[in-house]
């Protein structure tokens, strides 16, 4: 059985894109850093690549990037980092380093795992993460009911809008069956939401009580708001009952508690409270729905702006889902206008990335262009998450650009009174849309506006940070062909370390008291050897990199690096220290060998390959032993030449 340095789990509310994007990001980051990792995914098709107890036991660290419950208690005894799925996509390397860091506490059932946010106390992080993941757990289990039920109801309309009504002249028995199945399935979404919110917090007993609470609020008109309140209330009640029953010995009363006491008392207490709360919750629900519906006629443009901003703010996250859930609630009431705008706002962002890479191909890397083309397909099927990598690249610029396009698409949809009777499917459900061609046109208009803005933004950043190869011929916002255009390194480059390491850049028995002194020594060493022109500038860049995260690795190695206009050429420096020093390393050991990289300001990211190659070398015990035993610069140079 293969052994892994790290294991992890990813999951998102929809279980479609975020889950697998985070998986891929973590796997690539681990490979880059020289570690083996296995990721368990919690998608709509269920759990894939499930971790075995043996694999968990052998791992040194655990990364959980999930918006749904993945049972973290099975990782007890390991260093565990728990974050939302978006962080797994945006900051995979940071999470891996934290999972292997000696500063990350050992996880115990019911205790706090390190969250990497650094914004609040441990207790607050744990509570916030639990609330968020439990809500997303409920939403992820609810969505398939919404989609399946909604689409079947919409298909029944092929025979006429009243084809499921036995009193109508349009009545069709098959349409009636479809409508009944769809309506019954849609009716389960509120109880399921409440059930799986509670299940994420209070396990199986919470599932039972949460389902009952959701059913009670569904019958009483509490809707989605009632399901959320009922789910959390059920979890609190079950957890309190478990605490009260703790004095009862598990051996004798475990079965009685789980099968009889907890469900009976939990359902009674939670049900009684929900029965009393249904009135005010229904009033709030009705008021909110009426307020939103009022915008459809009085201010459709304002409603479009609100929906567009919500849907394009976090691309499948909780704000996006709030707009989507409101749309499905109104859909269940027979309002097909609201969902039309929500769908338009969700479809526009991924299409925008496709238009952006077509309009300014030179500003995007090969992988980004490929992702943009794939997003034409994802967007057409109502999957917004494909826009995340583009939004994450320059979020303060790109997210507002996405919002503008989504708001335009939604506003034009509302102004045109377009109806979409299905909650998902994208352009697949065009036969069910009352004005299909106009709806597609407005979505494309919104996506094009965002695409133009994204292309301009990408071009602006590409001028200050040139690093991409020339794109094909069509290029609206790019520069002229073959005019001082930097070309990225070819994928066939070997990135041999011997190309950037000379014996004059290797120093033995360097006597420095601490990390700061070592970095100053490196900066001065670089100037002395003609590799840089300003030691203070290089030193400042070293410090800036250390503030992001420590470059202390494992087994006594550190890999600091600096990128600056003062650096004349890519180079590698090696220091063997006389006495080990503290460097906040991943394994907590002191550092006795420093391998540093000097990077010119206009480096085409080839230094990442050199860093990656070095990190991989430092996972091989035989290489480490030989490097530790080397006594002269010539021996070290020869060792790296052979790699």
From TrEMBL:
Alphabetized Pfam families for the sequence: PTS_EIIA_2, PTS_EIIC, PTS_IIB
Molecular function GO terms recorded: carbohydrate:proton symporter activity; protein-N(PI)-phosphohistidine-fructose phosphotransferase system transporter activity; protein-phosphocysteine-sugar phosphotransferase activity
Alphabetized InterPro entries for the sequence: Bacterial_PTS_Sugar_Transport, PTrfase/Anion_transptr, PTS_EIIA_type-2_dom, PTS_EIIB-like_sf, PTS_EIIB_2, PTS_EIIB_2/3, PTS_EIIC, PTS_EIIC_2
The keyword Lipid metabolism belongs to this UniProt entry's keyword annotation: no
Record's bilayer topology term: Multi-pass membrane protein
Superkingdom of the source species: Bacteria
A GO BP annotation: phosphoenolpyruvate-dependent sugar phosphotransferase system
Chain ranges of the PTS EIIA type-2 domain: 499-643
UniProt name for this protein: PTS fructose transporter subunit IIABC
Domain PTS EIIB type-2: 6-101
Domain PTS EIIC type-2: 131-464
Annotated organism of origin: Lactobacillus gasseri (strain ATCC 33323 / DSM 20243 / BCRC 14619 / CIP 102991 / JCM 1131 / KCTC 3163 / NCIMB 11718 / NCTC 13722 / AM63)
Localization, UniProt: Cell inner membrane
Keyword field: Cell membrane, Membrane, Phosphoprotein, Phosphotransferase system, Sugar transport, Transferase, Transmembrane, Transmembrane helix, Transport
Keyword Iron-sulfur attributed: no
Transmembrane segments annotated in the record for this chain: 142-162, 174-197, 209-239, 259-277, 298-316, 336-359, 396-416, 436-458
GO cellular component: plasma membrane
């Amino acid at each position: 059985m293969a052994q892994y340095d790290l294991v992890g789990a990813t999951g998102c509310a929809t279980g479609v894109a975020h889950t697998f994007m985070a998986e891929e990001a973590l796997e690539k980051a681990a490979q880059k850093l020289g570690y083996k990792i296995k990721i368990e995914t919690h998608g709509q098709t269920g759990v894939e690549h499930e971790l075995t107890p043996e694999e968990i036991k052998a791992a040194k660290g655990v990364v959980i990037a999930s918006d749904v419950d993945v049972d973290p208690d099975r990782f007890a005894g390991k260093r565990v980092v728990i974050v939302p799925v978006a962080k797994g996509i945006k900051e995979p390397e940071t999470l891996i380093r934290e999972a292997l860091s000696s500063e990350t506490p050992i996880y115990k059932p019911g205790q706090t795992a390190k969250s990497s946010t650094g914004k609040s106390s441990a207790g607050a992080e744990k509570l916030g993460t639990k609330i968020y993941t439990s809500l997303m757990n409920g939403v992820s289990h609810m969505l398939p009911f919404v989609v399946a039920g909604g689409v079947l109801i919409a298909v029944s309309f092929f025979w006429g809008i009243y084809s499921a009504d036995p009193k109508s002249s349009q009545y069709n028995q098959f349409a009636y069956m479809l409508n009944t199945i769809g309506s019954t399935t849609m009716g389960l979404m509120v109880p399921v939401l409440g059930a799986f919110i509670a299940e994420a917090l209070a396990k199986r007993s919470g599932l039972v009580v949460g389902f009952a609470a959701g059913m009670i609020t569904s019958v009483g008109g509490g809707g989605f708001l009632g399901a959320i309140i009922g789910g959390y209330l059920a979890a609190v009640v079950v957890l309190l009952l478990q605490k009260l029953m703790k004095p009862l010995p598990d051996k004798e009363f475990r079965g009685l508690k789980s099968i009889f006491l907890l469900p009976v008392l939990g359902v009674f207490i939670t049900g009684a409270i929900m029965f009393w709360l249904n009135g005010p919750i229904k009033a709030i629900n009705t008021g909110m729905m009426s307020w939103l519906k009022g915008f459809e006629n009085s201010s459709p443009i304002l409603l479009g702006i609100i929906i567009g901003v919500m849907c394009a703010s976090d691309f499948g996250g909780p704000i996006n889902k709030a707009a989507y859930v409101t749309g499905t609630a109104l859909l269940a009431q027979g309002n097909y206008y609201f969902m039309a705008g929500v769908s338009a706002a969700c479809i526009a962002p991924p299409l925008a990335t496709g238009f952006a890479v077509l309009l300014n191909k030179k500003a995007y890397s090969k992988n980004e262009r490929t992702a943009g083309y794939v997003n034409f397909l994802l967007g057409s099927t109502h999957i917004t998450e494909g826009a995340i990598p583009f939004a994450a690249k320059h979020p303060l610029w790109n997210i507002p650009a996405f919002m503008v396009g989504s708001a335009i698409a939604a506003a034009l949809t509302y102004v045109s009174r377009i109806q979409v009777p299905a909650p998902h499917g994208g352009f697949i459900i065009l036969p069910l849309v009352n004005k299909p061609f106009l709806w597609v046109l407005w979505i494309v208009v919104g996506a094009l506006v965002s695409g133009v803005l994204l292309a301009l933004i990408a071009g602006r950043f590409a001028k200050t940070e040139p690093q991409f190869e020339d794109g094909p011929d069509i290029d609206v916002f790019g520069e002229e062909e073959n005019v001082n255009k930097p070309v990225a390194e070819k994928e066939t480059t070997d990135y041999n370390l011997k190309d950037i390491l000379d014996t004059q850049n290797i120093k033995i028995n360097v006597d420095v008291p601490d990390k700061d002194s070592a970095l100053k020594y490196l900066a001065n060493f670089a100037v002395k050897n003609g590799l840089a022109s300003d030691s203070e500038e290089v030193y400042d860049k070293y410090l800036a990199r250390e503030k992001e995260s420590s470059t202390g690795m494992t087994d006594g190695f550190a890999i600091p690096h600096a990128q600056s206009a003062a650096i004349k050429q890519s180079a590698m420096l090696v220091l063997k220290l006389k006495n080990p020093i503290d460097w906040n390393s991943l394994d907590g050991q002191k550092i006795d060998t420093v391998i540093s990289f000097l990077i010119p300001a206009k480096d085409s990211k080839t230094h990442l390959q050199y860093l990656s190659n070095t990190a991989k070398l430092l996972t091989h015990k035989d290489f480490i032993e030989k490097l530790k035993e080397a006594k002269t610069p010539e021996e070290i140079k020869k060792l790296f030449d052979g790699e």
